[in-house]
Structure to design on (494 residues):
């Protein structure tokens, strides 16, 4: 037989070959942590504490081992039980036998029960309106995250690494709890209660830390039974009761649990939870720097615009009084010259009229009339006579001349004809 | 603004409004300075928020944290 890769030409020692097969087989992720279903046969619990059996169905079978203390074994499991196991493949080199290393084992009857309680719980919560309730808002910048998960678990170290990458030194408190097994439910509920206390400002102050403002509760993937605590009512109720937003981060993408349905945010895996709630710090700084720059630039431009407007106004203001003054002066000048002209005109008009009046006044003075040969007749009591009417025969009258007067007596009177 | 410290999200939204208002222009000097000051204050606030998120990293077992909380209660 020719060696693989052409390195060895002689026949391979079988032990070495089995070793090679083992390495290939155990490395394949497909054969790791698989949930498998079958019937138990050759069930044997040894005094050493290890349990050996075969898992089989009508199409095939495989040897399996549960190492001492690896997991709780339901006492109802016996020859012929239908079970689900979570197991990884291993190869026992000494015998060249492939076997399953079992991490968990559950009788199928229990699984069926579990599915039923999960369905009932979801129905109940739906009826109560808890699935439609308004969810708490995840803070954009969480100041203190509480992470409730298995202490020392792979899920925790994944989350820790991812957080450090995104936001080095982000404040967080890990509350290590059991996430599977008989005490998991109670511990998760207590973990949520502790996180709730940590969100109380009073508590936070006494611990010298800001209050917890976000909770991530979860674990990595596993068999349905491993994740089962997250399907149970106490955990669901504790999440619903939380006054701080809770992110449910359980298992693989495909596992949908009751905790996912009631949480304020559902993440498909613990790492997904971190990616969804922990911002990348440098990106936030970049955004703030950008705003800073835009704010500065826009304000400077506004101030410059205003200065420019001010300068224009200043220039206009400087010339404005001169223009006004000049306009006023011109108006004044125009007014005064108009006044002079009209005053002069008035005076000469008045002079002319005065002369005319004087002339006509002179012309009609009685003395002037008498000088021209007319005389004025008066009665003895001084009444001026201008008509013949009313004069009586024998009446004494006085004739006035320019240079004196004469007394006379009326001899006769004659009225002019055609005069009235 | 004055009555309650805005959240980071609110601060960022307000900042966006302020910056785009200033960028649109046509603002008086008074208003410009007022907006600039508000914007600068919001930036300060956001930076403080970011630095206040940094802190201790506690990793405790459930029992330990419960004991710690009980001590606080007493």
């Amino acid at each position: 037989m020719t060696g693989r890769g052409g390195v060895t030409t002689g026949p391979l020692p079988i032990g070495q070959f089995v070793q090679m097969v083992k390495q290939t087989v155990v490395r394949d992720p497909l054969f790791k942590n698989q949930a498998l279903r079958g019937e138990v046969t050759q069930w044997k619990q040894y005094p050493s504490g290890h349990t050996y059996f075969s898992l089989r169905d009508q199409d095939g079978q495989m040897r399996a081992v549960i190492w001492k203390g690896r997991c709780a074994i339901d006492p109802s499991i016996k020859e012929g039980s239908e079970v689900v196991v979570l197991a990884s493949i291993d190869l026992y080199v000494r015998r060249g036998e492939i076997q399953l290393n079992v991490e968990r084992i559950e009788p199928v009857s229990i699984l069926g029960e579990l599915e039923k309680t999960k369905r009932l719980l979801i129905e109940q919560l739906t009826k109560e309106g808890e699935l439609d309730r308004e969810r708490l808002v995840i803070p954009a910048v969480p100041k203190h995250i509480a992470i409730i998960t298995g202490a020392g678990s792979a899920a925790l170290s994944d989350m820790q690494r991812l957080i450090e990458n995104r936001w080095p030194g982000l404040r967080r408190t890990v509350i290590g709890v059991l996430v599977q097994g008989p005490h998991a439910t109670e511990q998760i509920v207590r973990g949520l209660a502790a996180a709730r206390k940590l969100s109380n400002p009073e508590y936070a102050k006494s611990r010298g830390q800001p209050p917890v403002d976000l909770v991530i509760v979860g674990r990595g993937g596993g068999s349905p039974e491993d994740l089962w605590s997250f399907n149970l009512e106490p955990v669901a109720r504790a999440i619903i009761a939380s006054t701080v937003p809770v992110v449910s981060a359980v298992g693989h993408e495909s596992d949908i649990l009751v905790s996912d349905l009631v949480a304020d945010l559902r993440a498909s895996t613990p790492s997904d939870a971190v990616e969804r709630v922990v911002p990348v710090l440098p990106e936030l700084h970049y955004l703030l720097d950008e705003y800073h720059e835009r704010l500065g630039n826009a304000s400077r431009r506004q101030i410059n615009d205003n200065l420019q407007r001010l300068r224009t106004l200043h220039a206009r203001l400087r010339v404005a009084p001169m223009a006004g003054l000049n306009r006023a002066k011109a108006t004044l000048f125009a007014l005064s010259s108009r006044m002079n002209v009209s005053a002069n005109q008035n005076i000469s008009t008045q002079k002319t009229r005065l002369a005319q009046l004087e002339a006509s006044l002179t012309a009609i003075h009685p003395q002037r009339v008498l000088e021209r040969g007319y005389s004025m007749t008066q009665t003895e009591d001084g009444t001026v006579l201008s008509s013949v009417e009313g004069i009586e025969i024998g009446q004494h009258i006085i004739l006035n001349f320019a240079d004196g007067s004469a007394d006379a007596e009326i001899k006769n009177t004659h009225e002019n004809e055609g005069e009235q | 603004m004055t009555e309650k410290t805005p959240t980071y999200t609110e601060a960022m939204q307000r900042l966006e409004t302020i910056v785009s208002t200033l960028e649109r222009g046509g603002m008086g000097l008074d208003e410009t300075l007022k907006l600039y000051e508000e914007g600068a204050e919001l930036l300060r606030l956001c930076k403080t928020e970011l630095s206040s998120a940094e802190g201790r990293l506690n990793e405790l077992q459930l029992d330990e944290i419960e004991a710690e909380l009980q001590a606080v209660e007493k």
Q: What stands out?
A: Chain A has a mean pLDDT of 88. Chain A has ten helices and 14 strands.
